[in-house]
Design brief:
It is a single chain. With 501 residues, the chain is of the alpha/beta class. Helices cover 37% and strands 20% of the residues. It has a 7-stranded mixed beta sheet with strand order 15-18-19-14-13-20-21, with helices on both faces. Helix 1 packs parallel to helix 8. 52% of the residues are buried. It binds nicotinamide-adenine-dinucleotide. Nicotinamide-adenine-dinucleotide binds next to helix 8 and helix 9.
């Protein structure tokens, strides 16, 4: 839907024309630009070059040259760290501009976009600290005259591919760690939300990152992303996006046996016992379902409530959810913004229709909202959802909460694990044993106990099963972008191998 009226905050706004960054040069595309229509405002806000396979090849060649001959991999950790710290300061200084871009291009509320920028700057600082601490091991227990040293070397050229739902935050979960390790990179943001990643390119140049170390391509996945996953000069792929494209990425990487790190989808259970602090949980449930309009790998989209409290809790969640403020993403009081594209809105609607056909009840919402801006969806709750329904197993990626019930702890664990994903989960109970049992038995990369979606740069994040491979953040995050090399050193005379001495 296009805007009925131009929103006040965008009255004097002019669409921004971006260029790609290849080998330190801001580069136009060969063909017509891709236009981004703001999902929450219905007007064109950005134009990006439609990158091609040839652009990808030039960017990879630049990254290869910068790795094989440039100063970046051989600088000291302290030098790289100082540049990353400067980048963090510049991110903080330009946070309003970056948050504005993420807000208008993705449709997320501006207050939330600003929060993500604060988190992103912190990650750059954390990665800067790790850059100085990267180290290997030594073994002097291998016998007289032998010393073993295990080095950690930068893996090489890394392709970084990111999705549209947290544009600046997700590139910040990858790029600073790759840079801290001494890698060079080709980065491709989503074709729907490339703006803030391109501004990051300006920031990195200003911070002192040499030409070719960070190349930023725009364009579609099949055109410009695919060559980044097959090219023999790429050593590693760090991908965040859908499980389907993740699978394809892994298959592409197999041709040249690249290392692959994947952050994929989720269908995250929140298991609630009768002794939980229900006031806290109800607030968390509404936040978990409608944060980022539910377009969140970590969305708490699957409530598994104890049968004895299910009716009361569902009614209370519906009451709070009906008060969630849906509206213009640029309004600082908006809590639920727009849906990324009209096609995605339709897909969410189809999930709701199919769930109702399968026997679920629409306890709240269920429909698109016409706010005279872009495309929006009402906060939605489906009750009476059964574990085998599509809405209970598949990622809806919209503001749709499914309510399931359980009677025993074993049943709750069985339902929680009865899906292909394993990104995150939560348990709500005042009983320590209950929390720990769920924490140990649910197969997910993160399990929250009496909280939801809390995170910190120090804590690793990633998924079990089809939610991905590898972990981001945490103190080992830099190591993901390294190879280990064994130096086995001999000193003095040997006793001989085959030839007697
Ligand atoms: P997507 O898989 O459609 O796209 C992700 C990126 O891959 C985009 O940059 C896209 O252009 C690119 N791409 C598409 N086809 C490609 C191809 N053939 N080769 C190479 N690259 C290609 O995902 P999306 O719709 O942008 O994002 C939503 C998905 O991301 C959801 O499934 C969500 O769960 C997932 N996600 C996961 C995490 C996590 O940390 N686990 C975080 C955020 C989002």
């Amino acid at each position: 839907m296009t805007a009925h009226v131009k929103p006040k905050a965008l009255e004097n706004f002019k669409a921004r024309d971006f260029r790609m960054l290849i080998d330190g040069v801001w580069t136009e595309g060969a063909g017509p630009a891709l236009e981004r229509v703001a999902p929450g405002h219905g007007i064109v806000v950005s134009r990006y070059p439609a990158g091609t396979k040839a652009d990808a090849e030039r960017a990879i060649a630049a990254a290869r040259k910068a790795f094989d001959h440039g100063p970046w991999p051989t600088m000291t950790g302290a030098e790289r760290s100082n540049i990353l710290l400067k980048a963090a300061d510049l991110i903080a200084a330009r946070a309003d501009e970056l948050a504005f871009l993420d807000c208008i291009e993705s449709g997320k509320p501006i207050s939330q976009a600003k929060g993500e920028l604060g988190g992103a700057a912190d990650i750059w600082r954390y990665a800067a600290a790790l850059a100085r601490d990267l180290h290997g091991e030594s073994y002097n227990t291998l016998g007289e005259g032998t010393l073993g040293v295990v080095l950690r070397e930068a893996i090489g050229v890394v392709s970084i591919i990111t999705p549209w739902n947290f544009p600046f935050l997700i590139v910040s979960q990858k790029l600073p760690f790759a840079l801290a390790a001494g890698c060079t990179t080709v980065v491709k943001p989503s074709e729907l939300t490339s703006g803030s990643t391109l501004v990051l390119g300006e920031i990195l140049i200003e911070a002192g990152v040499p030409a070719g170390v960070v190349n930023i391509l725009t364009g579609t996945g099949p055109e410009v992303g695919a060559p980044m996953t097959t090219h023999p000069d790429v050593d590693m792929i760090s991908f965040t996006g859908s499980t389907g494209v993740g699978r394809l990425t892994m298959a592409n990487a197999a041709q040249t046996l690249k290392k692959v790190s994947l952050e994929l989808g989720g269908k995250n259970p929140q298991i609630v016992f009768p002794d939980a602090n229900l006031d806290e949980f109800i607030d968390a449930a509404v936040f978990g379902a409608y944060f980022n309009a539910g377009e969140c790998c970590n969305a708490g989209s699957r409530l598994i409530l104890h049968k004895s409290i299910a009716a009361e809790v569902t009614a209370r969640i519906a009451d709070l959810a009906s008060k969630v403020k849906v509206g213009d993403p640029l309004d600082p009081t908006t809590q639920l913004g727009a849906i990324i594209t009209p096609q995605h809105l339709e897909k969410i609607g189809t999930f709701v229709i199919d769930a109702a056909k399968a026997g679920a009840s629409v306890a709240l919402g269920g429909e698109a909202l016409d706010l005279g801006l872009g495309q929006f969806m009402a906060p939605t709750i489906l009750s009476g959802v059964l574990p085998d329904m599509a809405v209970a197993r598949e990622e809806v990626f919209g503001p749709v909460l499914s309510v399931l019930t359980f009677e025993t702890t074993e049943e709750a664990i069985r339902i929680a694990n009865a899906i292909d994903y394993g990104l995150s989960a939560s348990v709500w109970s005042r009983d320590f044993d209950t929390c720990l049992t769920i924490g140990r038995k649910v197969r997910a990369g993160t399990v929250w106990m009496n909280t939801f979606m809390d995170g910190a740069s120090e804590l690793p994040f990633g998924g079990y099963r089809q939610s991905g491979l590898g972990r981001e953040l945490g103190r080992h995050a830099v190591e993901d972008y390294t190879e280990t090399k064994t130096l086995n050193m001999h000193m003095g005379a040997r006793t001989g191998w085959w030839m007697p001495r």
